[in-house]
Amino acid sequence: MSSSKGYGINKDNMSYKAASTSNATEVRDGYTPQQQQEYSKYLSKLQQEFENRWCKKTNSHTFSDYERVRTLGTGAFGRVILLKHSKTQKFYAMKVLEKEKIMKMRQVDHTLYEKRILEAIRFPFTVSMEFSFKDNSYIYFIMPFVAGGEMFSHLRKMQKFEESLAKFYASQVILALEYLHFCNLIYRDLKPENILIDRNGYLKITDFGFCKVLQGRTWTLCGTPEYLAPELILSKGYGFSVDWWSFGVLLYEMNAGYPPFYANDPMKTYEKIVAGKYRCPSRFNSDLRDIIRNTLQVDISKRFGVMKNGVMDFKNHKWFKGIEWDAILNCKFPPPFIPKFKHPGDTTNFERYTEEPIKPSSYCRFESEFIDF
Ligand SMILES: Nc1ncnc2c1ncn2[C@@H]1O[C@H](COP(=O)(O)OP(=O)(O)OP(=O)(O)O)[C@@H](O)[C@H]1O
Ligand SMILES: [Mg+2]
């Protein structure tokens, strides 16, 4: 349903309708300044909704109504487990984080940010949180289950993506970063492991463990070696530019099947990144090379995404010819690939992990440190 201002969201509070765009099925190239201006109004509305949820305290739940199915992924502080609600039979992904590990790795602030951000964001290409709770030893985040698995697994299986598929995914990552930055959030961990494919073939970015509200600049060294931006490695204060650099790495990796900067020793990887030294496979066409060159641009003042035109440099780049941005946003663009998926709790798109018991301690660990969770 459109609002009277001409831009709007429909009943599910998600799909976007621009006032002056032509028929949604008509493919048009690029994005006009008028379209972007209108889209910015919509983003302002989403940003306001983000702010409202950000300031709201939410209620906690417990998980006695859920059945544990199996582990979907593991990480530094815990694991993500598939759950089934016994009454509704609905499936959820539960991220379990161990307070002790978070304390040892001094990640309390990052984890609190992760929780608050997951609670507050709502965008078609990002995961969000249904609810959270904690017990004596763990913190739990309950999210919708994204059944298609990690982009990482599909990329390794296909070796590289067809250009049309890479373009389809890249356009969603651009819209997701545009939304996050509009909400003043810097993501800082873009990589194929953190990008999930939903059953409709569209993406959901997950893992907001390094995401935070940006106030001016920030200095923390975090992320994944191959995806780190030069300004971050050089310990210069940095901002949103690091996400666009990682996007450039992703763009390259989706098309090549391997990342642009790689060495066995992370220090050597950093040297290559700082020097901006990489080579494109000979089959990369000139438009693809051009967009990568402008994104893997060591000089921030020349990097796509952070210059005066912002994301418009991407939206109107020749490589995205054929991408209809509003149709992508509304998931109306036909996905070039849909993951195999047989039934609601199907986990075949995820790797197997050894299961470990979740045993909360008999007394409350780090109560004061986790008071805000
Ligand atoms: N909503 C979800 N649906 C399905 N699988 C998910 C979901 N969220 C996460 N996963 C799976 O679990 C894996 C780990 O999750 P995530 O990236 O959030 O944790 P992590 O990498 O351990 O985090 P951290 O970097 O904070 O240690 C993901 O890569 C993905 O395979
Ligand atoms: Mg992760």
From TrEMBL:
GO cellular component terms, semicolon-separated? cAMP-dependent protein kinase complex; cytosol; nucleus
Any one of the GO BP annotations:
imaginal disc-derived wing morphogenesis
EC code(s) of this entry: 2.7.11.11
* One Pfam family named in its UniProt record: Pkinase
Q: What UniProt keywords are attached to this protein's entry?
A: ATP-binding, Kinase, Nucleotide-binding, Serine/threonine-protein kinase, Transferase
Q: Does the keyword Kinase apply?
A: yes
Q: What is this enzyme's catalytic activity, as reactions?
A: L-seryl-[protein] + ATP = O-phospho-L-seryl-[protein] + ADP + H(+); L-threonyl-[protein] + ATP = O-phospho-L-threonyl-[protein] + ADP + H(+)
Q: Where are the transmembrane segments?
A: none
Q: Record's superkingdom? A: Eukaryota
Q: Which InterPro entries match?
A: AGC-kinase_C, Kinase-like_dom_sf, Prot_kinase_dom, Protein_kinase_ATP_BS, Ser/Thr_kinase_AS
Molecular function (GO) terms for this protein are: ATP binding; cAMP-dependent protein kinase activity
Which family would the database say this protein is a member of? Belongs to the protein kinase superfamily.
Name of the protein in its database record = cAMP-dependent protein kinase
